[in-house]
Amino acid sequence: MILDEKNRKNLVFLILQFFDEEGYEESLHLLEQDSRVFFDFSYFSNAILNGNFKEADDYLLAFTRPEANTYSRKMFFDLFKRKLSEAPDRSGGSEAVNIFSKDLRRIPVLKDDSFDDLVEVIAVDDMRISEETCCVDKAPGRAKLCVDLHKLAESNPCLCDKLEFPSLNKSALLSLISLICPNCSGRNGGLKEDLICLILQFLYEAKYKNTLHKLEQETKVFFNLNYLAEVMKLGEYGKAEEYLGAFTDSKDNKYSKAMFLEIQKLICLQSTEWEVATPSGSLDNMSPKIKLHASVAMLAKKNPVLKDKLKFPSMEKSRLLTLMKQTMDWWTSSTCNSSSSLENVPVVSYLCGTPSSLRKKFNKTGPRKKVVNCKPNEINDPSQCNALVLPDYCSEERIARLTYSPSGDYILALAEDAAHNLWTWSSSQNEFCKENVFPKPRLHQPQSGKTMKNEMAASVQNSTSCFAIKGSYLFSTSGGKIAVFDLKSFEKVASFGSPTPMATYFIFIPGDLLAVGLDDGSIYIHCLSSRKVKEKLEGHDQKITCLAFSRCFNVLVSSDSDGKLCLWSTKSWVKLTSKNSTRKFCTQSNHESTSLVTHLQFDPYQIELLVVHEGWIGIYEGRTLDCRLQWVPDESDTSITSATYSSDGEIIYVGFRSGFIKIVDSRTFMTVCRINLTSFTQPSPNSIRYSFRAHTSILIQTMM
């Protein structure tokens, strides 16, 4: 489909307004230059007033050339003249020489030129400026230049019809998109993110490469791995670092750090011109340069910050142009019929990609009830799944808490008798980090013979056990004070808090902070370095059951025993919103689920929140606590004991009291498979708790 120039121009104006309203400044001015539909004289004059003559020169060059006409010639001449007068070395220095040799040489000499202007520029008196003049404020001269250039622009046939921006309603493009796709909630980031993808496709098809890649950086919606590979292949490693730096920082994670390091290695190779020619073929036969290029691409695909931004949504060709054409055809038709109604406005069911069959299952009032599953694969044989029973656990006490360490090098358990057990692996077992290799743990006991045991609550029946790990220290409680243990020696190094109100859940927050939820519904923010309470958060009436922190949004989410969720800013500690997660769902076995939230967890990208109840689980938006998706178990399923994301966030492991685990897709909640734990162990009918390691395996622990 080919649209006429007027429609293309109108669409560009809508995109320019969108860029301006969203603050995409660099993309805005690059598109002005690439499309040449609007000359922003305000931006041009501000560059001159701030002394950014190179920026002003480049902007003007995008619209006209010195040889285009007399007005363009005069504009460039006056700009270079001012630039020369402000050159630091006015007595024949390098900057002045460059202006003569590069800039003024671009000014064509026409047949009717009297050379008066040129003589004026190179006059000796004009070049030798006294020390007093150097200290004079440059602002008046620059302001006068802007006035003169504006008069020339108004008379310049290349610019005169591009100085006025058309009058548009606020957020015109977003409003149009909302009008033709009213029920579309976007891919994950909403309508605006889908619109950005449509604009990126438009820029790509229109061959606006400069604007395209700058918009990718400013919006961070799509990481163009092909572009990164292209600039690295051209040896433009500064551009590669700039592009990567727009999406991630070397401190974000180990993959980002490694990517920046690989680019630095490429810069080093380039500077030393050290490149060994080797036969192509396997990775081992590749040259160091090719290996580093391949490594950067591989790390990008594994990087949790970039992973979900690598795939651009599939869509029909010229999708945005098509949508605008449909809207304009309707508008023209309705105008001709003198109708101001929105009747018969063209409506589409989706913007990017193909219509999602999953979204059709939602009704207009909220999330669905239950996802219809095909019969999942059953794992009943030990040969189908690796299983591990932790050795030497002799206690008859139930396990209250169980987790891998953040680095996955040990397993920590807290029993209901307030005793801790730690299983680790010997340093010689390097196979631990390899895929599909199951480690052999051993119960760890320090030489001192010390044990880590918490202070018990006065009323054991109502006590809550929880712990959190910070470096080599364990913070733990079993209803009494919060104890701090050294995990290397098992020595108790400190304790704080009080038995009443009782600590029920706590997590660490960046900034050396510890958030502690209590059974009276309050949350205390402790500063560990100053050993003082920084804030007290009040928004719950019942005991705090879970806390979760998002690095992406800098928010803390809390839940209580009544199912209430609260969202707090960790910058101002203001409550942003609260939602009641209780839905009064009934399982197919007619056992009504409780309102108690048993687990909160942000996905690996820190965007969406997993909320776990005994009778169902849900996915919530991290910024708003709006429920995006909910899942109720089948009729044969018993109550849920725990659920957790995999390390890549693609799947969710859901454990049930009857002793089996369901693995479900995190985007659709479709069941992938079901693991029957009774084929591997002999669990009691009480419950199962498990934890996911940062690498490949699941830890399954039977509650005795």
How would you describe what is shown here?
This protein is α+β, with helices and mostly antiparallel strands. The protein is 30% helix and 21% strand. It contains 18 helices and 27 strands. It has a five-stranded mixed beta sheet, with no helix packed on it. Helix 12 packs antiparallel against helix 13. The longest helix is centred in the middle third of the chain and has 19 residues, at 254-272. The protein is elongated. The model is unreliable at 118-134, 273-284, 354-368, 428-435, 584-591 and 683-704 (pLDDT under 50).
Structural class: alpha+beta
Give the strand order of the largest sheet, numbering strands 1, 2, ... along the chain: 1-25-24-23-22
User: Helix fraction?
Assistant: 25-40%
Alpha-carbon Rg, integer? 33 Å
Summarize this structure briefly.
By secondary structure, the protein is an alpha+beta fold. The longest helix is centred in the middle third of the chain and has 19 residues, at 254-272.
Question: What are the key terms here?
Answer:
704 residues; 4-stranded antiparallel sheet; 18 helices; repressor; WD repeat
